[in-house]
UniProtKB/TrEMBL annotation:
Catalyzes the reduction of ribonucleotides to deoxyribonucleotides. May function to provide a pool of deoxyribonucleotide precursors for DNA repair during oxygen limitation and/or for immediate growth after restoration of oxygen. GO terms for biological process: deoxyribonucleotide biosynthetic process; DNA biosynthetic process. One of its GO terms (molecular function) is cobalamin binding. Keywords: Cobalamin, Cobalt, Deoxyribonucleotide synthesis, Disulfide bond, DNA synthesis, Nucleotide-binding, Oxidoreductase. Its cofactor is adenosylcob(III)alamin. InterPro entries: RdRp_reductase_class-2 (IPR050862), RNR_lg_C (IPR000788), RNR_lsu_N (IPR013509), RNR_NrdJ/NrdZ (IPR013344). It comes from the Bacteria. Its EC number is 1.17.4.1. SUPFAM superfamilies: PFL-like glycyl radical enzymes. This is Vitamin B12-dependent ribonucleotide reductase. Residues 111-643 form the Ribonucleotide reductase large subunit C-terminal domain.
Length: 848
């Protein structure tokens, strides 16, 4: 018998230790350091940190990739992989792969996104509930999910149950949305895409579903639009909706004016940024996997951000290549793009992506092992188990990958090319064409060494437009592919890079720079006599203003001899920007039609899709939105989203100008006797807690949170706003908290013996929260009022945690918090993120 040596416990780090190490790694960038610690550092469910900086994360990932490489000929070494990852310089696994590779503390998938669905027109309650459960099971393993609703029969259709007629698809949108809001993902909220064909008779109801405030808040929605509908819009003609959709023998038809539905889509997108549009015929026509539709690879929907169209039960993992790092001598007249190094690294990236599929298959086996070991009845486990078996089959059979890019905006600026210009579009297309050719070449080479994906058939693909473009661009690659096959069914995407770009310290994805330079404020310590005071706010607090430069704009300044520590005036900053390659190239400056044209041109070399948002000023017209959508279809985009500044607002946010209107029309001054409520259960310092969110018109009105003990529970009185907590003594002389209120007949009533663990001050804090909600005050302001209650820090933090978690489902991530400013840096650029008020400028975050 072999005796195993005892394993030494893994080293752990405090938050402070990790922050200091990460701050050094990111060269003083606090926001990047905090984002990495919160989202990607290896941690367990108790909050223990096992990595102090991205250096250890990249070592972890490289070690696992090298382990898989050893299973194949000519393996890359751990050091070779690490050098590609280190400092986020060249290759950046995104999201789930970054957090999950080599993570033994969570049983989670490495896939960023999934699509699920039923075969054919299967729309029984059983099939609808099955999708609901599958969605939840995937979200709890960290994946974003998409599914299509076109299979659900339209409203009013006959059914053979007690209802007699169908309710249509909108009620199920709300069901799926609610399920998404209920699933936690390590501080993240689940992500869902719901789509429907414009050919479905309930399409108009779908388009309007999110216009009612508080409805379908847990899902993105997009309409699958076909070419026939677009032609009807262009020619002001009618269009026939059917069920089943596009059927030769439909059970139901409905003739509509295409222009009216189109105007509704445009109006709603102008007003609320949804629905998005998926140009479905373009997606399917260009899709390489759809060449295998008869084998189960028919595309039915997309992931939540729209960049990966997928067939049911397929998944994808994402990776970004940092384009800025291939610019040599950036921001000089000698600047050039190193295409040879880029080609070499694209091949390595595709190889790493294929290795990640093997790592994902191991993760799926771990998930299946967990399911098998669970004590539940086999009938209960059947849906979850079959789900993962289906996903494993598709991942192993098709081996789909998702290589993308980041830093497109910085790459162009470093080369002295204006984003959105004719030259800029031309160069971007050349980069993405090179990426496509070299990724496919690497996949063909991998097929020679490792074997092709199991259903590869050159005959099925030969007429696909994307494959035809590859053939025209590189005939040898095409003939090698027909001889050896390809390792992966589809390879490319351009996803939003979000927090990834904070760590690469570049522009995000294919987007231009947001702002090259802006100002922040730092509160001045009254005791610091040497501090410079640039601004005094309405409360009398003093602030020092300092300039913040976009990282690559700062690099441009250094290269061109400008001081970076100078206290510039606004006029001097404006002059600086005009001299830079970022001038007239920000997200607010570029021509919107040029951006859509660029997307369409690049899309020709991306076999999946592109996630990109066209940002418009608040004064943009509905007519402009319609023109952009039409242009996107004409230039070959697969989808498009338009966001007009200020068109999407959070539930708890009110403009100062509209404050009076919001108070009078939405929040009644008197509490109703019956208040609809949602229940949220969560853990707070390992204790079971519960939050009741009282709702009026789907909006939070009151929130009560407290301990949810198994033994004595907790009493949450309906009349908490009118009552008082009284401290008494029980028969043995111990402290006891009673709740006293005046009943409907005017008699004093006392409820004795609230939980002994519960501090009565918590009830006072609950009343404060309820008041702020009732009168539309942003919840953040309530935190500033807690001093008057003289609560201890632990009490305050408990309430803040509970309220933040309760509100996550009601406040959309990314919602702008107008009329507020960051208490740390003074910035007014605040957003709600995962229930917390967050400052993107400095990373400061306040929950509650």
């Amino acid at each position: 018998m072999k005796i195993e040596a005892p394993t030494a416990p893994a080293k752990t780090y405090s938050q402070d230790e990790a922050f200091k190490a990460s701050l050094t790694y990111f060269k003083g960038d606090e926001l990047a350091a905090r984002v990495w610690i919160n989202k990607y550092a290896l941690k367990d469910s108790d909050g223990n940190l096992y990595e102090s900086s991205p250096l250890e994360m990249h070592q972890r990932i490289a070690r696992e990739i090298a382990r898989i490489e050893k299973n194949y000929p000519n393996p890359m070494t751990e050091n070779e992989v690490f050098e590609l990852l280190d400092n986020f310089k060249y290759i950046v696994p995104q999201g789930s792969p970054m957090a999950g590779i080599g993570n033994k503390y969570q049983i989670a998938s490495l896939s960023n996104c999934f699509v699920i669905g039923n075969s054919g027109m299967n729309d029984s309650y059983g099939s609808i509930m099955k999708i609901d459960q599958e969605q939840v099971q995937l979200m709890k393993r960290r994946g974003g999910v998409g599914h299509d609703l076109s299979h659900i029969r339209p409203k009013g259709s006959p059914v053979k149950n007690s209802a007699l007629t169908s309710t249509g698809l909108v009620p199920f949108m709300e069901r799926y949305s609610n399920s998404t809001r209920e699933v936690a993902q390590d501080g993240r909220r689940g992500a869902l895409m719901l789509s429907v064909s414009i050919n479905h008779p309930d399409a108009e109801d779908f388009i309007d579903a999110k216009m009612e405030q508080g409805k379908v808040t847990g899902a993105n929605v997009s309409v699958r639009i076909d070419d026939e509908f677009m032609q009807a819009v262009k020619h002001s003609s009618s269009y026939v909706q059917k069920f089943p959709i596009h059927s030769d023998n439909p059970k139901y038809t409905k003739e509509i004016e295409a222009g009216k539905i189109w105007d509704k889509i445009v109006h709603n997108a102008w007003k609320s940024a949804e629905p998005g549009i998926l140009f479905w015929d373009t997606i399917v026509r260009e899709s390489v996997p759809d060449s295998y539709a008869d084998l189960g690879y028919e595309t039915v929907s997309t992931n939540p951000c729209g960049e990966i169209p997928l067939c049911p039960y397929d998944s994808c993992r994402l990776l970004a290549i940092n384009l800025f790092s291939y610019v040599e001598e950036p921001f000089t007249k000698k600047a050039s793009f190193n295409f040879e190094l880029f080609k070499k690294h694209v091949a390595a990236a595709q190889r790493i992506m294929d290795d990640i599929i093997d790592l994902e298959l191991e993760k799926i086996d771990d998930i299946l092992g967990k399911i098998n070991a669970d004590p539940e009845n086999e009938t209960i486990k059947a849906v979850e188990k079959n789900l993962w078996l289906e996903i494993r089959k598709k991942a192993n059979e098709g081996r789909r990958t998702g290589i993308g890019i980041t830093a497109e905006g910085d790459m162009l600026a470093a080369l002295g090319i204006a984003y959105g210009s004719e030259k800029g579009i031309e160069f971007s297309v050349e980069v993405h064409k090179t990426l496509a050719i070299e990724a496919y070449r690497a996949s063909v080479y991998a097929a020679k060494e490792r074997g092709a994906f199991s259903v590869y058939d050159s005959e099925k693909e030969k007429n696909n437009p994307f494959i035809q473009r590859l053939k025209e661009a590189d005939e040898k690659l095409y003939f090698d592919m027909t001889e050896y096959g390809r390792r992966n069914i589809a390879l490319l995407t351009i996803a939003p890079t979000g927090t990834t770009s904070l760590m690469t310290q570049t522009t995000s994805g294919i987007e231009p720079v947001f702002l090259p330079v802006y100002k922040r404020r730092r509160k001045v310590n009254p005791n610091d006599k040497e501090a410079r005071v640039d601004f005094v706010d309405e409360t009398g607090d003093s602030w020092e203003e300092y300039v913040v430069f976009h990282h690559r704009f700062k690099q441009w300044m250094e290269v061109n001899g400008f001081e970076i520590n100078k206290n510039y005036s606004q006029k001097e900053l404006d002059t600086l920007v005009k001299k830079s390659p970022y001038y007239k190239a920000t997200s607010n400056d570029i021509d919107w039609m040029s951006k859509v044209t660029m997307q369409g041109a690049v899309q020709k070399w991306v076999d999946h899709s592109i996630s990109v948002t066209v940002n418009l000023p608040n004064e943009a017209t509905e007519e402009l939105v319609g023109q952009l959508y039409l242009k996107a279809w004409e230039v070959g985009c697969k989808g498009v989203t338009v966001y007009r500044d200020g068109s999407r607002s959070g539930v708890l946010i009110s403009n100062e100008e509209k404050k009076e209107e919001a108070t009078s029309s939405v929040f009644p001054t008197k509490r109703p006797q019956i208040l609809e409520a949602d229940v949220v259960r969560f853990q707070n310092n390992k204790e079971k807690w519960i939050a009741f969110i009282g709702l009026i018109d789907g909006r939070p009105y009151e929130i009560f949170t407290g301990l949810a003990d198994d033994d004595d529970g907790i009493l949450i009185p309906r009349w908490v706003n009118e009552g008082l907590i009284i401290k008494n003594k029980d028969e043995e002389g111990n402290s006891r908290y009673d709740f006293q209120y005046e009943n409907q007949r005017g008699y004093k009533t006392t409820i004795e013996g609230l939980s002994h663990k519960f501090d009565p001050e918590f009830w006072n804090y609950a009343k404060l929260i309820s008041t702020t909600l009732r009168y539309g005050m942003p919840i953040e302001k309530a935190v500033d009022l807690t001093n008057s209650l003289q609560l201890d820090n632990e009490s305050i933090n408990t309430w803040k945690n509970g309220v933040a978690r309760a509100l996550k489902r009601y406040v959309a991530d990314g919602t702008e918090a107008k009329g507020q400013k960051c208490s740390n840096c003074g910035s007014k650029n605040l957003i709600y993120q995962e229930g917390c008020l967050t400052c993107p400028d400095c990373g400061s975050s306040k929950c509650g």
